[in-house]
Fold these 2 entries.
Entry 1:
Amino acid sequence: MRRHMASYRIAPSILSADFARLGDEVRAVVDAGADWIHFDVMDNHYVPNLTFGPMVCQALRKHTSAPIDVHLMVQPVDALAQAFCRAGADMVSFHPDASAHVDRTLQVIRAEGRQAGLAFNPATPLDVLEWVIDKVDLVLIMSVNPGFGGQSFIDSALRKIERARGLIDASGRDIRLEVDGGIKVDNIRRVADAGADTFVAGSAIFGQADYAAVVTAMRAELAR
Ligand code: DX5
Ligand code: ZN
């Protein structure tokens, strides 16, 4: 389904930014036309990599008014989810298989006045959504296995995006459908056609010198 252009969001993942200059990188990518800042939190337990915590989120909060979209790849979830809410995150997503009590974790985030998201790995079914969709503000479909930037898009994600779009539309709720992993200028249109409205891109944007050129090219694809 073709959505209205205004409803699309591009969320660069700072996982692929220069960590020594994160504040500058966030400002640069927002100036380049990004809508959200995607903030990948890895714990070397749920995923085999380690990134940054709530203190870095709090530090970046001062550098931008763009929404900070925290993607937790951590286990356990609840304490860090709450810490990120208090560190200025606008939305906090977690993997349901990493939480012992998914409904409770969603409530922890919403009680802080933040938007709550559920993230689904390539082999994880959407089943839990049926039971908690009334507490979900964002569904994040992983199109790579979490842990690293720069991986190739896994095509079965397209069918899962279609499935998630159906569930979201049936719920009647205003829920964002975000896709994360391997998104480039040359596949963003297919991902949108499957039903996504929010696009994470790490290496595609930060891997190029001219961030604005990439964001503009992505928007042109979405407008076709
Ligand atoms: C992977 C992260 C992604 C990643 C995307 O675990 O969740 O957000 O940074 O990077 P690219 O766009 O390079 O696949
Ligand atoms: Zn992510």
Note: The pocket of D-xylitol-5-phosphate (ligand 1) is lined by residues 13, 15-16, 38, 40, 71, 144, 146-147, 149-151, 180-183, 200-204 (CB under 6 Å).
Entry 2:
Amino acid sequence: MSAPKKLFIKTYGCQMNVYDSERMAEALGTKGYEQTTDADQADMILLNTCHIREKAAEKMYSELGRLKQFKLAKPEMKFAVAGCVAQAEGGEIIERQPMVDLVVGPQSYHRLPKMADAIDRGEKAIDTDFPEEDKFEELKDRPKARRAPSAFLTVQEGCDKFCTFCVVPYTRGAEVSRPVDRILREARELVERGVAEINLLGQNVNAYHGEGPDGDWTLAQLIREMATIEGLERIRFTTSHPRDMEQDLIDAHGDCAKLMPYLHLPVQSGSDKILKAMNRGHTREEYFALIKRIRDVRPDLLLSGDFIVGFPGETEEDFMDTMDLVEQVGFGQAYSFKYSTRPGTPAAERAQVDEDVKSERLQRLQALLGKQQKAAQDAMVGRETTVLFEKQGRDPGQLIGKSENLHAVHAFADKSLIGTVRRVRVIKSLTNSLTGELI
Ligand code: SAH
Ligand code: SF4
Ligand code: F3S
């Protein structure tokens, strides 16, 4: 057996890319690759890219430019580009940066072992198909190594919603749900390997409708079944779309003890005119009503959202509707962005909002969201919660974990508690974390 080859992966974008990077590392593991954190030592450098906002492709090319020095020092080094920029640009990447050996899209990376053979023979390998075969099934035998306590598990991919600003339906393809038995098998394997919390992933995870033993199952059905797995302590899911938030999933938040009280439910804008122009498929009043139904069953649920400011046609009044929605709803966590023109999407063709106006609105929105985030964190002081300890902290004797509401929590605790869920009393709120003590 030859010495293991070293693989360096850099991941951009969403959690699905994080999951995909793990799976790509496993796929290349079958070809003798082991992961390294030193890019200059690598035999292969893989960039797993994101295309969601402008300049993503430019960033990738400049990153490749920076990495070129390593190739000069080590000419046999291979370069691979995966993810959503790979899907969008395909072979053009190699035309522009001939140092790249391999380009693989998010739906075809189970073919990486074959592609790795091809580049070893000195060929270029490009695959951006949306193949018939199920990539997860091709990759089903995950190595049995011990895992970190919290893991991602992709259950649904792609998007049919076509929001007018978004590239995901083009880079990830149509909505596809994985069958129930395969997801449960993967979940059990993760638990056997030390995982205590599973975060179910999908671009529209609550649109999940995978083949079950008796017809298609909803996400709520899948969660309830998963909750029966012994040793699995916590379940989360992300990202949800307000349009697919059905009553059975809301109910699960009320009565499924393993389902954590945290919900990422992006609304993007508080203006009906803009929501319509974005093709989001709901009004602000419908969003308010939905939040009320959710909070009725789970008052302590922490709500998280995504916002876009400066969408084409957004006036000051529309923006104030967003501010007002945020005031009324109250978000414990949020991600906000300036609208970014994506070629090929409908909104790119419309009259654009001035860049300065976008920046100024983003600042005001982030100030408000920041205040709400801080208030939600501060409100935890004096309360009890459970924490899944994930790793050692920077201070000796401290562990770091996540609360039920996904707040980072530090506490003095023995490292044997890593991977376990413990009751903690919150005693202090810091900038981006809480301090707790074991009860
Ligand atoms: N499927 C999820 C979002 C996936 S993309 C949903 O519908 O909620 C993640 C976030 O990126 C989006 O919620 C949006 O806020 C942001 N985003 C997507 N396209 C964007 C664009 N063109 N400009 C700015 N932000 C964008
Ligand atoms: Fe993009 Fe809209 Fe689909 Fe979310 S629902 S991935 S924002 S098109
Ligand atoms: Fe980015 Fe693709 Fe995810 S565009 S946000 S990596 S689905």
Note: Residues 355-378 form the longest helix (24 residues).
